[in-house]
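Chain A, query sequence.
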Amino acid sequence: MLNQNHLLGLKYLSATEIKEILEQATYFKQLFNRPVKQVPTLKNKTLVSLFYEPSTRTKGSFDMAMKMLGAGSLNFAVNTSSVNKGETLVDTVKNLASMGVDGIIVRHSMAGVPELIAKNVDIPVINAGDGFNEHPTQALLDMFTMTEEKGYIEGKKVTIIGDIKHSRVVRSNIWGLSKLGAEVTVCGPASLIPHGIEEMGCKVVHKVEDAIKGADFINVLRVQFERQKGSYFPSSREYYHEYGITPSRVKLAKEDVLIMHPGPMNRGVEISTDVADGPYNVILEQVSNGVAIRMAVLYMLLARRNAR
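Chain A, predicted structure.
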């Protein structure tokens, strides 16, 4: 059982708690092939989605998860809210909590916002991505996909390649994968590798061929041009030449390597179309697993919380 009242990051979860979420997601995924997919576990609950940043996969899968669990959803439109009148974030969430919502799902460009909200409300808060800090449910669905495909994570070599500096996904993955016993390697231009990231429990490699060699999983990160202030490499073409995941580079990994990507993809920049649509990719499976993982998180935080 989760010992947390919130899901703020995988930094705060134990290996046992992570495994329990993955096991719960396995149960919920079985519902996908049933004629009736809903389990009204949260039928008397209402959650609010506070997305201060654009999202397709994360927002859509949380919406699907809420629907399949029977929960009500209050979509918060930042552009038409009192935020535009100067209302503070803390006042916004306190007002929403006073309306009787049972949980808050938040995505924000500033690191630490989910923790700030959690300190000011007495309901579960779920981090859907905060700044360059964490994106815990994305890492959980990545690990769920890995265990589905390979059976276990311990001892597997997971290589994460791309814009490490601006990625919240990579930080959650390093925390979670390390706790489950994986060997984590990150790779990218020196300008896109944060100083000291190896202290989190990963290996840093700058040559993509060395990073890919012998990998069980290659998780390709998007180059986040919209977050980059300044130039971190000469051009997209040169980035692709040095770090793009191509069929010839994939051959350096294990024969049964799996290719992953959190999306959205920049085809021809961090990954070739042949690889993105090739036989080793599980990218769409990740999207499907995102619904199961988010169902598991909502259930464990809301339904079990009330049962304690």
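The beta strands are 46-51, 72-76, 103-108, 125-130, 157-161, 183-187, 203-205, 217-220, 258-260. The first helix runs from residue 15 to 29.
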